User: What shape does this take?
Amino acid sequence: TSNDPGENTQIKTDASGSNANAAPGTKVIIGFSAPAADHGWVAAITNNAKAQAQAYPDVEFRSVEAGADAAAQRAALSTLIAQKPNVIVLLPHDGKELNSAGLEAMKAGIPVINLDRAFPDRGAYRLQIKGDNFGMGLAAGNYIGEQLKAKGVSNPQIGEIPGIDSLELTQERSAGFREALATFGFKVANRRPAEFTADTGQRAATELLQAVPKMDALWNHDDDQGIGVLAAVNQAGRKEFFMVGGAGSKAAIDAIIADNSVLKATVTYSPSMASSAISLARLIGQNKGMTDLVELQVPKEITLASETITKENAAQYAKLGF
Amino acid sequence: MTTPVNQTPEPAGEVVLKLEGVVKTFPGVRALDGVELEVRAGEVHCLLGQNGAGKSTLIKVLAGVHHADEGSVTWLGESFAPASPQAAMRAGIATIYQELDLVDDLSVAENAFLGHEESRGGFLRRRSTAQRTRGILSRLGHAQISPRSLVRSLPAAGKQIVSMARALSHDARLIVMDEPSAVLAHDEVENLFRIIRELTAQGIAVIYISHRLEEIRDIGDRVTVLKDGRTTAANLPARETPTRELVSRMTGRTIEYVFPPRVEPKVREPLLVVDRLTREGEFADASLTVGAGEIVGIAGLVGSGRSELLETIFGARRADSGTVTLNGKKITTIGAAVKHGMGMAPEERKSQALLLDEPIYRNMTLASFSGYAHGGFTDTGKERTAAMQTADLLELRPRDVSRAVRTLSGGNQQKVVVGRWLLGGTKLLLLDEPTRGVDVGARAELYQVIHDLAARGVGVLLVSSEVPEVLGLADRVLVMREGHLIHEALADKIDEATVLDLVMAGSLMEGEPA
Amino acid sequence: MTDQSTKPSLPAQSPPVAPAVSKDKSRANWLKGDGAESLRRNLGLVGVLVILVIIGIATRPELYGDATWVKNNVFTILTQASAIGVVTVGMTFVIIGGGIDLSVGAIIAIAGVWSTTLSTQSYGTFGMIFTAIVVGVVVGLVNGALISYGRLVPFIATLAMMVAARGLAAQISGKQTQVSANSTINSIASTKILGIPMLVIILAVVVAAGWVLLNRTTFGRRTVAVGGNPEAARLAGINVRWHTVLLYALSGLCCGIAAIMLTSQATSAQAAMANLYELDAIAAAIIGGTLLSGGRGTIIGALFGVLVFSTITNLFAINNLSTEVQNMVKGGIIVAAVLIQQFRYRSLTQLLGRKPTS
Amino acid sequence: MTDQSTKPSLPAQSPPVAPAVSKDKSRANWLKGDGAESLRRNLGLVGVLVILVIIGIATRPELYGDATWVKNNVFTILTQASAIGVVTVGMTFVIIGGGIDLSVGAIIAIAGVWSTTLSTQSYGTFGMIFTAIVVGVVVGLVNGALISYGRLVPFIATLAMMVAARGLAAQISGKQTQVSANSTINSIASTKILGIPMLVIILAVVVAAGWVLLNRTTFGRRTVAVGGNPEAARLAGINVRWHTVLLYALSGLCCGIAAIMLTSQATSAQAAMANLYELDAIAAAIIGGTLLSGGRGTIIGALFGVLVFSTITNLFAINNLSTEVQNMVKGGIIVAAVLIQQFRYRSLTQLLGRKPTS
Ligand SMILES: Nc1ncnc2c1ncn2[C@@H]1O[C@H](COP(=O)(O)OP(=O)(O)OP(=O)(O)O)[C@@H](O)[C@H]1O
Ligand SMILES: Nc1ncnc2c1ncn2[C@@H]1O[C@H](COP(=O)(O)OP(=O)(O)OP(=O)(O)O)[C@@H](O)[C@H]1O
Ligand SMILES: [Mg+2]
Ligand SMILES: [Mg+2]
Assistant: This one.
């Protein structure tokens, strides 16, 4: 998060030159579509993709914005397909709702790289890169569980502030969180969803803090709405608990390093996957494989691990914050 | 003033207002087409003309609402073209508009001073406003209306008083009144005249518009007649000019301004039987009958509950007790009433009866279009033809039934409403103030229509605030006071004075919530 | 007074005689009259559409040079307009009838979600369509009952329904996107009949049915009366309350149909689907000349309203405008469209309507 | 007819005698009159609030047992209501004046985003507040001008503005959440004066100012006239168009204030902030007794409407209800609240208003 967009993007420039794939190859037109960015994470996805594409002289980047909902994105995709790019990189509004669009593109002979939100139909994509929503919940739950266990809290009051509650990814995150807590014998005392924005995060957190007068730990799914959550915590003057964030924004990582707020850790769900997707799209377009793998082609599925950033390891993640 | 209110003196004052060749066109309509008018200080100058003659347009030009296209207006010796209503008011011309121009959710005082509020730095001076309003109201003879009560809570006559109070709240040299008596009952009209006489005695000029010719005789000094936006006669003496001449100047033809003779109705079985009908707080124990081909009139003061009674008979309001039977069938809902052949022309034409933007024929068939339909599909061709025939029958002008009702004059709009029920094959017609705001010519035609209906066996129950109308039209007269039917008589066995005596007794609009 | 014998003496009680107009002529009028009137009234919007297409041609001449692409693009625009178009037809009825329905998006969501639960899917295609439509109509009936008999303001009643129905949809779906495994449903979106996409045909049928219902049936006549002057309608013997209930049920029915169409397009349904369709549908209806206060409106106008919106979106897509620029431009186009439409309408009424009365 | 001499014959021109009321009493009336009337009218909503609190006590007695918690909770509810409450005051004026403003959320977003750009922040606290308010008022003026002079329907004009202003906000912010580095702004949300949160005080001041403006100034009375009977207002010499422009500017002003309040609460602003505030504000106003068609409404009622909403949210939070259940219940509560409110209002009018006049 920054007031100045484009300043921090996470791209792989590969200065070392040791990678044979870095050499320019045949020209690849990459079509790209992501939902309207009204959120730091989605904005970072688009910015990363754009920046990564610019790093390759042999890539032409064509992005269509996908409007407000799945229907709009479907419409955008049909115009994109009509322009016959070599590869399409797609962050769908909803994987299931855009499954048919994926199939259509694949049928038209355009490999589709699905970012983050899986198509149910395996024929609808060439490559699936996704973050691990369930794993993110697990990581947050494990961290909280271990910390509380170490403190010897027996019946902890744990709060949770998810993002938009009707999204499947939110459900997966919460499921992972619940499961991890259950292994410690803990459960969530109160759960107030926000909408991935700072102002809704502030509102949800205010309500949550009021409903749980003494809290031990709090997981906020998203660092962007976390700005508001932290503001609410400060406004309520509450310090008795610790908080775990989600996604891994720059501001959150800075706060963890500074260690002057309740935010002690964040579990990643990095928009760097967009940069990787562009790199791999180029390889697919050029019919190349990943050099470290034995296989001649890019694999079908890649799931990024969700990592836990704490004060100890924050420094090395600092450049990956969005 | 202590000046005794006797015969108004001959207009001796100087000319305050002079209009010459005033023209005002609306897109497609030449509403004013060369109007001449001369008003002297201290006189009551009556404006006569048929519906749509341009009277309201003329006074709106004076009030700064419309701007004249051509012609000259001289006010107090100077050329006058008010840019806005405010400018006209500042120049000393106050107007009481025909359509009630009040805001329901403002108080009486706020309405009276709307647009020229007493304020200090934008803040209302409520106490002095209330005081001044109280003063004006008592001058109007209605000190019992609280300046703080909401206009919404006042009956129509009360609202008219507030409109008048608004006009008096200006320091006016000329007060224009556009049909102020239309919603007033008899004693209220007397009261209005008293006020007008007080005003003229102070040298204030009054322009008075009304469709009731007998009022002109009573209050007017001089008369100007408009026809199709043109002055056809100017400065006739109000008391001496024969009615016949006024009417012919207005309409361009001669109309016998009397009620058509009634054939002595035969004895007939009762069509409508209302038995001890009651609605708490509105009317109680109303029992009456109407026979086929009979016209029954209800006289009473504004607010005596006549409209409520009619609406309850029609099923539009739920009775607390009592029954209504039509041809032996009990009526409790509008659906049943319409089905069994009852129709009603309600009091407020525009808000209660008409779809103003829809064509005439659709308004006429509003209660019967299902009858022309085949399996739910409408047959507009048939509807149109039927409407055209009814329009001929009613002498509707214009005959073009595709025209939007909004463009019709008041009298013709009323005919559309009556026509609606003729098309529906109605056996019993309830008419609430059928001639309100309707001009002389149209009025005579409506009377004829009502008689023709009765002659065809339709029963008519009629409410009117004009006692002569009730007496002239009806076979039988009922008198209503404070929610009770207190008297019944054959129309030729009772005279106007008796009815008025019965009707009065109590004054209206007492006990307003403070 | 005029002599009574000169008047055509109609028997008061007998039904009116059949019109003298020849049958052929009246049949020709049947189609002409209001249809041409709708077109005339919407000349402004047609103009806006033409301008949008011209901008499209000017900015992407190479695409518009390709006839197949143009044909496909027309169908894309129409397909994109199909579900919202169906909803707008229902909305237009509700608004003409003096109401408003803020719950259409939520009704689509609950109808879509309910018809794609595993248990509903087990009843097959018919079961799914039946469910969507019944759910839509029932929710509409509840809306209507709250408004008619509970005397709630339509805005509030349908707002409450919007919130509640989305909640129920989330509950039913467990907040999961429910995939439709029914290939018949899924294929609706890809089927073409005589080269025309099925969804476009559905839209055309619904619009045509809506037009006939509004302009040629007693139901439509009542709708105009109820919205134009409810008191007059009531005093003319129309059951205003019941009619209002039917209007909301009709809107619900349209939502049920739209739910199936959207489900087929997305091969899935979820609680957040059709988000903010209410605003789009209301805006389309109003831009199409429907009076928000009721009593006046046209189905054809509403269709044009929808088409303007989906043409705008299409224009943005082929020019790859970013969302923020899209939104800014869209706001401007909406204003411009209404101004153009208004201008036409005003000058026309001046030419045609305001002939001297007397 | 009636004897004229029995009527009070006051001298026509001379000022009427002063009323017998003592000065003290009338001053008491200044506050009482309409204030008590607002309260009486809103008895239903007060009842709803009481019921909600009772449910809260019944379900979480241990929380309500703690006096400090209860006090904090009251302030939490009020704080949560503060920004939307300020917006609702402006919205109530617009609706009473016969309009509607769908762009309030978007105005907040653009005002918030504009006032938190790095360059604006460099002008310090005053610069930020000034920017937010000016942006709000200017956008409101544009709304008003489109409606008054462009003759656009308010629904469409403000809908277009909603779309466009969000787009512009996204453009300005580069779709990033803009963090406020201004500690004065940020501290507004945590400051308390005499134990009362600053935001609550701002709400109270705005509500009080709104009440005075509506009930005690020419502007307010003219607003009622413009909304209740625009033709009468025009005939009374009120510049209806200009007044309409001012009403939207007032709404924009309230949005500007709310933008600062929200920015302070979230210590940041972004293009998606205050999402759907328009619906909440309109709903609160209507539930509070404001007539959607204009001409009638109370500020106090609108405040109660907002409080009902934020009390509902609070009740859900302390009982940890899930979103979908929340939504279902919320829909029901809205309906119930209006029904209760209506019941009170109706029975009261029956008691007071419908007495026979004669
Ligand atoms: N604003 C307007 N736009 C167009 N035509 C108008 C307008 N106002 C009045 N007219 C037309 O001007 C003519 C004169 O109308 P006006 O209201 O002055 O008649 P009037 O004499 O007051 O009739 P009534 O006795 O029914 O009140 C009518 O044909 C009317 O339709
Ligand atoms: N909306 C209303 N609210 C309160 N009181 C009303 C309302 N409508 C009518 N009333 C009261 O009901 C009674 C009957 O009124 P109404 O004016 O209908 O009588 P009416 O004899 O038909 O008089 P009019 O000649 O005005 O039609 C009066 O006391 C009136 O004040
Ligand atoms: Mg007139
Ligand atoms: Mg009456």
